[in-house]
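Researcher: I'd like a structural prediction for the single chain below. Treat it as a standalone chain; there are no partners to consider.
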Amino acid sequence: MNFKINGREIGIGNPTYIIAEMSANHAGSKEYAKEIIWAAKEAGADCIKIQTYTADTITLDCDNEFFRIPGGPWADCNTQYKLFSKAYTPWEWQPELMEEAKKAGIDFFSTPFDFTAVDFLEDMGVGFYKIASPELVDIPLIKYVASKGKPVIMSTGMATLGEIELAVNAAKSTGNNQIALLRCASAYPAITDQMNLSTLKNMQELFDIPVGLSDHSQGSLGAIVAVTLGANIIEKHFCITREVETADSFFSMNKEEFAQMVTDIRQAERAIGHIAYGPTDQEKVSMTARKSLFCAKDIKKGEKFTPENVRIVRPGYGLEPKYYEDIIGTEALVDISFGDPIQYGMFKINK
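Model: Treating it as a single chain, here is the predicted structure.
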């Protein structure tokens, strides 16, 4: 079931909707965040996405074993509270960033992580929402977001089929059917051979809603393959340059890489095209490369066609080879010279 974002239809039969995720790549600078918005637009993104939380709304300021970060790319932050304190996008910036996106001519939305974030984004007038993979199990949050009656894009990293079904049903229970599901590997960076992109088509068939990919893998291979498998939405973390180090920069696409991905996606869409049989416009000039029936030895009027004087050869100016057996043994109605294509009117049809 397709839906619309700012008047643009999302779903089967429409161009892929491409989201640039800013996340923590603003590096603590509002002005740099604005530069990222313009860079995303220039790179061909349809939308810029941010995240709306504070350390206090997403976790607890606690350093016991449950809240420590034991390893991985963010281990230097020690605790979840420290990580989110470093990575969050200040709320006071967000109305300005939304206005900047409007100036740039690019869609803008956010991922809320609690009810207060939803209320804040509603006051801003955000037109649609994202549910992050870890929040897919936060059914109260999903219901609250969906109750606003706006499109909801949900990532499904780590989720079982049962958990996805529960989340979709929770959103629909509010009367909101504007839902999309994104395949996601919640690893940073994700390993390509564990992305299982075949799941995309299965999700679309099971839930009859637009599907896509929230891609944490490096490079654009996953995104391109996802589009060929029917992805309607692609989301990638975006930065201008990875030389500005942030919590997300190491697995984010820079501007040039993102622009190339957009170009490749659009080319892939053209290559997918639509179901069609018969020669395309570009193939019509190649039709003569086919084989056809030609006179291989001078034939006099009244003489019979034989395997010696009729052959199936290139080019394709004569009758199609399927008529060969019908012609052999019939009489020529006219003189035919070596190298002439065999045409209707040259032979007597046996009844």
